[in-house]
Specification:
This protein is of the alpha+beta class and about 500 residues long. Helix content is about 35%, strand content about 15%. It has helices at about 5-35, 40, 75-80, 100-105, 105-110, 125-130, 130-135, 150-160, 265-270, 280-290, 295-320, 365-375, 395-400, 410, 415-420, 435-450, 465-470, 475-480, 485-500, and strands at about 60-65, 85, 95-100, 120, 145-150, 165-170, 180, 190-195, 210-220, 225-230, 235, 330-340, 345-350, 455-460. The strands form three sheets. Strands 9, 10, 11, 12, 13 and 14 form a six-stranded antiparallel sheet that branches. A four-stranded parallel sheet has the order 2-1-3-4. The N and C termini lie far apart (about 100 Å).
Length: about 500
């Protein structure tokens, strides 16, 4: 029998090598799939050169203490899902998310911000979130409070006139709150304040609770403020309120171990089985009990609006030393309590509110919706190549043009407005609007179309009928109390409301 020829042997070797190479390729593809690189590796290269509008990967810089503990996990997750890369202070970052107030620890970097960079705090926001400053504000929605020891005399006089009132003494740390009688208070404790305790609270299944409303400031001078309308945080005390015992603070203070909505019997079915969120379950409960949930939320909105209008001058003063206030936005949480008549009381405003679901995993959805709606509202989720202020003219006009912000055609066509900008009715006609104000109006336009589940608090909302009848000379105390730029912002929303009720 003839031995295999050299050609046959060579064929066998080539086939063997082919099998080996095939197996190696299969192994490499398997490894690439495991490491998530498959799509990038096997995707064919696009022909032609990249377009000049190609999207650059945006960068977020997340700053905070002990980030490894995971308390900002949902912030990282949302930024990752909307296509951000993680950077640091040395990167050419687009968004800084700082858990701490950055204007002290990062003062140098805050003084040299580029136009496209956004920071999640406003200079001077402590005027709103500082507990002492807020509590002693003249605001009908805030329980009576006195700064100690400065207002000791006024406090003692008030306490004498209201002998049955109970009090709590607080500091900015918020820890150690306990109901006390007047004689038990430390009226020499500098930096603290005493505040009337809201007794006779509204209870659900015997539990007192608070309501956290996520609120975002996007602009000052003019003011634009929004709340997340689709959801709110509800935290119930861990002990029943009655029989009342002031020594048991778990009856009246919401702690870290609060009771969540899904453990409250009257809300559990709505939340668990019927799939309503926290706010909708709460509203349904109120309405079924014959209460007016719409009035409650209108009062909450009024309380928030009052705070920002009162503190705006201080915010403007704090922001003046920076090149532009357009670099800043801020989301805080307003915490409210209710009495048995559903009167609303603002208890505090939290800077960098808790967004960790470490204690309650079911809060994950709410926290991620809070962050996503916030980032949509402040225009950092947009799939375009640059920040609006840095866009090319064509790209900017594609998103919002001068025509999109034009309002009041019937006024602007009048002989008075065609020849002069002096009359207040003419101030928003295109020839009369400054470039700076046009940019402000365009940002307001983009916020509105990207607001997601957020609703406007300032400028205040209105009905279509109100807008159609409104003029600058209209008897409107809200309008006449505003500064010049806030008046223009208010007027502009009236004009847009006339065009479409979706703007009202």
């Amino acid at each position: 029998m003839k031995k295999p020829g050299r050609l046959f042997s060579l064929v066998i070797v080539v086939l063997a090598l082919g099998i080996v190479l095939t197996l190696l390729n299969i192994y490499e593809l398997h490894k690439m799939r495991e490491t998530g690189n498959l799509q990038q590796a096997v995707q064919p290269q696009a022909e032609g050169k990249p377009g000049k509008y190609a999207v650059r990967t945006p960068i977020v810089w997340v700053e905070g203490k002990k980030l490894e503990s995971g308390y900002l996990k949902h912030v990282f997750s949302v930024f990752d899902r909307i296509g951000y890369a993680l950077g640091n202070g040395e990167s050419d970052w687009d968004v800084l998310w700082s858990h701490e107030y950055p204007f002290e620890s990062l003062a140098k970097k805050m003084s040299v911000l580029k136009p496209h960079q956004k920071v999640n705090h406003f200079p001077g926001s402590g005027y709103i979130t500082n507990k002492v400053s807020l509590a002693v504000s003249t605001n009908p929605f805030i329980p009576q409070a006195f700064k100690i020891p400065k207002e000791k005399r006024q406090f003692l006089q008030y306490a004498e006139e209201h002998p049955h009132t109970l009090w709590v003494q607080k500091r900015n740390s918020h820890r150690g709150i306990k109901i006390k009688h007047v004689q038990e208070l430390d009226l020499s404790d500098d930096g603290s304040f005493v505040q009337m305790f809201v007794d006779r609270p509204f209870l659900i299944d015997g539990r007192k609770f608070d309501i956290g409303v996520y609120t975002t400031l996007t602009s000052i001078d003019p003011l634009r403020v929004y709340i997340l309308e689709s959801e709110a945080l509800f935290r119930f005390c861990s002990h029943d309120y009655y029989p009342f015992d002031a020594r048991d603070i778990k009856k009246y203070v919401v702690g870290d171990d609060y009771t969540p909505v899904w453990e409250i019997p009257s809300l559990k079915k709505l939340y668990r089985e019927l799939n309503f969120n926290f706010k909708d379950a709460f509203n349904a409960y109120l309405d079924m009990k014959g209460h007016n949930s719409r009035k409650l939320w209108a009062d909450i909105t009024s309380a928030i609006k009052t705070v920002y209008l009162q503190k705006e001058a201080a915010l403007i003063g704090a922001t003046n030393k920076y090149t532009s206030s357009r670099n800043f936005f801020e989301m805080v949480r307003f915490d409210f309590a209710l009495d048995e008549d559903l009167n609303v009381y603002l208890m505090e405003v939290n800077m960098s509110p808790n967004l960790s679901s470490g204690h309650f995993r079911e809060n994950t959805l709410m926290y991620e919706q809070v962050v996503f709606n916030l980032l949509s509202l402040v225009l950092v989720t947009r799939p375009v190549s640059h920040d609006f202020s840095q866009s090319s003219e064509d790209e900017a006009n594609m998103r919002v043009s001068d025509k999109d912000i034009s309002v009041f055609p019937e006024w602007c066509l009048s002989a008075q407005c065609l020849h002069s900008c002096e009359n207040e009715m003419c101030k928003l006609c295109s020839p009369c609007v400054s470039l700076s104000m046009k940019k402000t109006l365009k940002l307001a336009y983009l916020e509105h179309i990207n607001k997601g589940n957020c609703g406007r608090v300032l400028p205040q909302r209105m009905s279509g009928e109100f807008a159609l009848q409104w003029t600058p000379s209209h008897n409107d105390p809200e309008f006449h109390s505003l500064n010049h730029r806030n008046k223009l912002m208010y007027m502009w929303f009236v004009g847009k409301c006339r065009q479409s009720t979706s703007w009202c």
